[in-house]
Prior knowledge:
The protein is an alpha+beta fold. The protein has five helices and eleven strands. It has a five-stranded mixed sheet. A four-stranded antiparallel sheet has the order 5-2-7-8, with no helix packed on it.
Amino acid sequence: MRTYLILVLVSVVGLGCTQMRYSGRYQEVKIESEPPGATVIIEGDIDPLNPAAVKLQDGMMLAYHSPVELKTPVVLILDKESTGYRLRVVSQGYPEYEDVLMPRFAFHPYLIITFPLVPFWSNYEIKRFDDVFVDFEACKAELEAGKLAGAEVKYKEMQKVYIQKSGELDEVTGYLEERQKELAAADEKVEELTGELTEAAQALEDASEEEADEAKANHDALEKKLADAQKVQEELNVSVEDLRKSGEQLADEKTTAQEAFESAHEAYQTLLKERNAKLIAAAQKRLQDAQGEHDEAANAVGEIEAQLQEAQAELENADQRILDCKKQVTDAQESLETAEEEEKEAAAEALDNAEAQLQKAQDTRSELVAAMDKLEKQLAPAKEREAAAKQKLDAAKEEYAGLTKSEEEKENGE
Length: 414
């Protein structure tokens, strides 16, 4: 039991710092945004029993009645007993972010370790608010992408309706043309039968008693044919009129559908152009930044190489200086060896000066060699940065060229 308690204490101490923000009824919740400085508004389940507080450097104060304007980043103190805080984060030029903050279940291994001391059912230990980070650029891009996708769906739906109405109108127009041809044939048939019936009526009047029955039968037959033809003619007239009305209605519906389609397509094209313009502007900005990075890296390499060339020239001069100093030392040694007694002191002093000049020249050369070594060590990573910047610049150029070419092709296609 003693060993278990020791393990529990060690676990509590080790996890205490990490749990400080979360354990207990109240919890610190970070509200951050990119760009920072957004206005934070907390609403909803806020009252003296379920307060929302703000953690400041000089203490804490209740946010729901505080006159202080909250800006991101900010740390709120929220009550886990709350049924929901409504959070609004507002930044000028971006869509407003809104969310309901609710504590969620969060399992922690230390709850099992400390089970005898901290009951697992402890509501405050297993509930936790999530921190909030609002990327306004991402939210704006997502919203714009959603608008563009919605506009595309709408214009395609309107296009389908327009195509459907066009097909229906073409179909009705085809039926109407067929019925009009049939009606023209029926009119001719009625006119023909009317003429024949008139002749049959005249023949019946002029017929003798022997011919009367046959003339009467012929007249009745023609009369029946004419009635049937007139019935067909009437039906075709009704059909033609119905088809004409349907055609007029479909023509109006087609015009309405065409206007809706063209309006939706224009709205989609406007959003698409705005999106493409932003993509091109962003690509141009990346290209400019990449060009700046490459120029900076190339200039750094050029400066190092220029310094190396200068140091190399100075090193050659230093080598020549060393040779000159060595000759002066040799001459001074020979002068000292051949000097008279009264001249030896001056000759020795001249030798010391020559040796000092030689040492100074050698020290200068050593400093130059060390400086060149340092520059050469700087040159390799500088060239790597230049190569990476060049690769980034090439990619940015390719991206920008691809976007501008695509936009030109669309404009030419239109």
